[in-house]
Design goal:
By secondary structure, this protein is of the alpha/beta class. Helices cover 43% and strands 17% of the residues. A hairpin with an 8-residue loop joins strand 1 and strand 2. The longest helix has 24 residues, at 138-161. The protein starts with 6 loop residues before the first helix and ends in a 5-residue tail after the last helix. The relative contact order is 0.22.
Length: 206
């Protein structure tokens, strides 16, 4: 598996920007739980091997890389937007808000932000959306790992409070197991009320 590259960050640093932040979100397509966004400024001289899009890594690799990224980063933050705000804002706006909050929490603030696909509103610093950024950019991939591990841990915690749905296994995504549990038990307080997968329910065999 080929990891992400630092070429984009290095290009931006050659333009004179010292702190380049990568930003990405996870949990956008889930039926339950929060959406989380990671932002990280990687130190140019502290290389972490194996950083790649969080979706192609094993859970064990993500946990290991999480610790290594945190140790090597100039600064990092994960912002979490809960279910009530997702339902109030809609998932797209909630995801952008999470990314915005993750960036503003960085100390020092970055001079340049690169994000996966979407332009982040209400930032005063320069930014560049990168299509396929979590595969192409080490900083964005690192942000995706931080967000994924943080959100997965939150979903495991939610499972301990209410084990009926299996959040520890599917993390809120629309698996057959999850949909079957929703048919049996209905919506829990951590399910997104604006997500109504009725057509998916119909695909479950009785």
């Amino acid at each position: 598996m080929r990891g992400a590259s630092r070429a984009i960050e290095n290009e931006i640093r050659r333009m004179g920007y010292v702190h380049v932040a990568g930003v990405d979100e996870v949990g956008r397509g889930c039926l339950a739980g929060p959406v989380a966004a990671g932002a990280v400024v990687l130190h140019p001289d502290r290389y972490v091997a194996g950083i790649a899009d969080s979706k192609v890594l094993t859970a064990a690799d993500r946990e290991r890389l999480f610790s290594e990224i945190v140790e090597a980063a100039v600064c990092w933050h994960v912002a979490v937007v809960d279910v009530d705000d997702i339902d109030r804002l809609n998932i797209h706006r909630a995801s952008l808000f999470a990314m915005q909050q993750a960036v503003w929490a960085l100390m020092p603030l970055p001079g340049f932000v690169i994000s996966d696909a979407f332009r982040i509103p209400n930032l005063t610093m320069a930014q560049r959306p990168v299509v396929g950024g979590d595969r192409r950019s080490t900083a964005i991939a690192a942000a995706s790992i931080l967000a994924k591990v943080t959100r997965d841990r939150l979903m495991v915690e939610l499972h301990t409070r209410d084990p009926r749905y299996g959040f520890d296994r599917h993390k809120g995504y629309a698996t057959r197991e999850h949909l079957a549990a929703m048919r049996r038990f209905g919506y829990s307080p951590v399910h997104r009320r604006t997500f109504r997968p009725s057509s998916l329910f119909d695909t479950i065999s009785h």
